[in-house]
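re: ur question from earlier - yeah i can do the single chain one, its not a big deal. heres the input i used so u can compare w yours
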Amino acid sequence: MKAVKVFSLFLLVFVLIISANCVYAAEAVDDPDNNAGSSRQMMGEIEKIIYGYVSQGGLIERLNKVEEDLFGRGLPGTIAERHAAILNFLDVGTDSQPSMLFKLGVAEWVVDKKINASVSVVKRLENLETNLTGATRTGNPIVMRVESLLATLIMDPVMAAPVTVPANTVLKFRFLDELSPGKSKAGDVVRIELTSDLIVNQHLVAPAGSLLLSDVREVKRPKRFGIPGEVRLSFFGLKPLGPQKIQVSVGKEAEEAIKEARKVGDRGEGAIVSAGAATVAGAALLGPVGLVSGIFIRGNSLKIAEGSVTYMQTAEASTVAAYPIPEALQVSDHSISAPEPQSSNTPVNYDPNRDTIIKGDVFNRNSYGMPTNSGTINRGGEFELPPEQQIN
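and the output i got, formated as tokens:
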């Protein structure tokens, strides 16, 4: 049985290679100089996903090591084709088979009811294996280790189904890193995680621990004569189990959730970062949709501490690939139900300690196909805060 399963996985990889026609490979053929740059970028992205860091050395040696660690053997094709196939396998998948990161996330969620998206595949696997068996299975191909874990945890194969997450669904996030004008640098990756599961009609869209993709857009250090420092963050969307990103923004629903959370205190989770001017951490969330979405901090000593929380909402309805939760693992009805608001004045009934459970006819029966918003990041134009949002 295991031999058949591993063979099927390798067959999937070869199909991805044969059908690889991604933009990276096309650009590589047209532009040899771009080939080198794209290959280095893709190699670094693959290594960061698997190991958590970018290795040194030649591209061929690094690529051979990744393939051996991942599949137990090398793969045919050009460097660009092999890179494209590996990235598709790791993060995109096909209509019939979800990606490896999707499957790994499901395994983590079944065990811990959250995922560890901020750490490498290798570390996530080691943690899971240690928790389940008391020992790691280093030396075996990563693909085989993931499939072995899933076979131990659940009976049926992991599949993906398309669902639509309604607009204005409120989500709670926690900062995993401290931010301040004195310590932050432009280009720093900022880790911000979802604090509870996002579930649509018993389909797991984004488990707790899913990351809101963000980095430091700009830093201005404090200057003489009392001129305060500034930090601007950009948000590039919530990364769920599937490859499609979910864009977030600030609106009335998120602001109401912040007000409700403040009424009951922070529950020991740290300061609540608000969307208005009078904020706990001296920060303002940027919106609305169409502008650079992120966070603006201004002040010499102000900071967003590690563990601070904030609330945002989905910017628009998004169709994503999700995991159909088996009946034995389904969340009971006492969790929050968050149907799509009928208007901007819809009352918010938000409990920050419960998962976001969405019920109703929000399925998209069409094939979700390739992601439509997972390509090149669009930072938008420059956006200056209105004076009333600047915090002195």
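Residues 1-157 form one domain. not sure if urs matches, ping me
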